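Amino Acid Chain and Its Fold in Token Form
===========================================
What this section holds: a protein sequence and its matching fold, both as plain text.
Structure line: whole-number tokens from a learned vocabulary of local backbone shapes, matched to residues.
Purpose: to set a sequence beside its fold so the mapping can be learned.
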Amino acid sequence: QVQLVESGGGLVQAGDALRLSCAASGRINSDYTMGWFRQAPGKERVFVAAINWSGDFTHNAGAVKGRFTISRDYAANTMYLQMNSLKPEDTAVYYCNAGRPRIYEFVNEYAYWGQGTQVTVSS
């Protein structure tokens, strides 16, 4: 089993920055990809970013390219999402996940999920 715990969410203003963390514990296989999805009220959970185990490949959704950066700290078993130039449309619950996705954008491809952290961006 893998346990994932997100933190770092909060209320910020448009243009501000925020860094989310995802602490992982348990049996984390060396070939696991980790990633972030987000879910706005009344909408489906959508892909934000993913990073492979070695950290040499990342993939971002078009809506966040150039603003969000995903990274991993292997010594701390923690993944991060640095979010810059936040917009009101970034408001959502952000979930971290882990698994072996064949397609990064498919929510069902990830086996493990955290409980989510709320990010609210005011205009």
User: Anything to note?
Assistant: The mean pLDDT is 94. The two ends are 40 Å apart (CA to CA). The longest strand covers residues 18-26.
